[in-house]
Amino acid sequence: MCRVTSTTADRPRARLPGRPDTAKHRRPGSPAPPDQASQKETAIFTRTTPPPLPELTKLAQDGTLPGILRQLSGLGGCTTPIRLDGHRTEYDIDTGTGEIGRVLHHLDSADLPAGQLLVRCNNRRTTRCAACAEVYRRDTFQLITSGLRGGKGVPERVGTHPRVFATLTAPSFGPVHNRPSGPAGTVRPCRCGVRHDQEDAVLGTPLDPDTYDYDAAVLWNAHAGPLWQRFSIYLRREVAKRAGLSQRLFRQHARVSFAKVAEYQKRGAVHFHAVIRLDGPTGGDTPPPPWATAELLTDAIGAAAAKVRVDGPVIDGRAHTFTFGRQLDVRTIRSADFNDGQEVTERAVA
Ligand SMILES: [Zn+2]
Ligand SMILES: [Zn+2]
Question: What InterPro entries does the record point to (predicted)?
């Protein structure tokens, strides 16, 4: 059976409404309101504790608490859920005719225990929501590592496909404060002369704000997505060229598979980490052709990264174009990197 879904969200609210601040805090020693002072003298020095959540008492009385708890447990600990008003209807659909049939399921946010649909905020920053940031961190790990060793829907045999871990960065927009590493884990002084601490807030900030190319830095981030997209197209071309195949023929022989994450560097520029793999024509489930090697892939990545450029806007008579930085790091991943040379199995990583 196939389903078609219609969803509307009328009024997304950014945050949960705060608990009404009915508790009046008084500093010890401050005069009590006249009516209380007359009741009991000691009250002047007693810090008023906030009353128990009035909503909680009401919910317990209504018997809606179990429902609310069930709804909250689906948030996985998210502390700043997004509240949505709206409704969603699932219909049966005949895939032969495309005709929409009877209603399968209807959900109205007003009928939910909390009176609204609660959705995880999915913020990646720990300071905003520790629970959601942690989920993102683990998802990223699973995504990247499954591309390496199989698992999570990726066939086990991809562990034998040629694959590399590539890091593509933005070009320089001007020198920034950094922590250059010296021999044996030592830290050398920055160009400003200071040996910066790891937590130094100045790290990644321009050495000379007057000459730093802020315009280009900001615009580069805005064009990083298209730049990556074009890079992936160029890479297929470069791989095909090295295999002596036309674009069209290439698709019948092999496929270039990607798993990438975009991260912010200290200097605020986006950079990409990616596992890039050569597969057979249908992907991870088909063996790659004999010519497919990690060396060929590495060579093709270098060529594609050097060639790719995206035209940006013309601002104040300056035409911006965006390229990757020269700092390209490509490392071959071998099965041995993951399991001391043994065959990688699901059991070994479980
Ligand atoms: Zn959250
Ligand atoms: Zn410095």
Answer: RepSA (IPR046828)
